[in-house]
Specification:
The protein has 91 residues and is α+β, with helices and mostly antiparallel strands. It has three helices and four strands. The protein has a single domain, classed as Alpha-Beta Plaits. InterPro entries: Dimeric_a/b-barrel, HTH-Siroheme_Decarb, Tscrpt_reg_AsnC/Lrp_C.
Length: 91
C-alpha cells in the first residue's frame, strides 16, 4: 500500500464542505482540518503510484473551494506501537 499525505489549501468559508467531499473519495483514508499553514491534511492510501495522481489531480484539485495542493509520498511508517513491540521481542 502506498501512502501520500496531501496538504490542501481551501477557501476559508468552504473548509467543512471541501473536507467532506474529499473524505468521500475513493483512496482517501483520512481528512483532518487543522490550524497552521494548510487548511486540510489528507491521507491517501492506494495500491499504485498512478492512483495518487488520479485522486489528487483528477478529484481533489477539481473540488470547488480547493485552491492548491502539495503532495508528499510516505516512504516508511513509524509509530510508538512499533517501537514498543521491538522491546517486547527479547522479553
Amino acid at each position: 500500500m502506498i501512502t501520500a499525505i496531501v496538504m490542501v489549501h481551501t477557501a476559508a468559508d468552504r473548509i467543512p464542505e471541501v473536507a467532506q467531499q474529499i473524505a468521500d473519495l475513493g483512496g482517501v483514508a483520512e481528512v483532518y482540518s487543522c490550524a497552521g499553514d494548510v487548511d486540510l491534511v489528507v491521507v491517501v492510501r492506494v495500491r499504485e503510484h498512478e492512483q495518487i495522481a488520479d485522486v489528487v489531480t483528477e478529484h481533489i484539485s477539481k473540488i470547488p473551494g480547493v485552491q492548491r495542493t502539495a503532495t508528499h509520498i510516505a516512504f516508511r511508517s513509524y509509530s510508538s506501537q512499533d517501537a514498543e513491540a521491538g522491546f517486547e521481542v527479547g522479553e
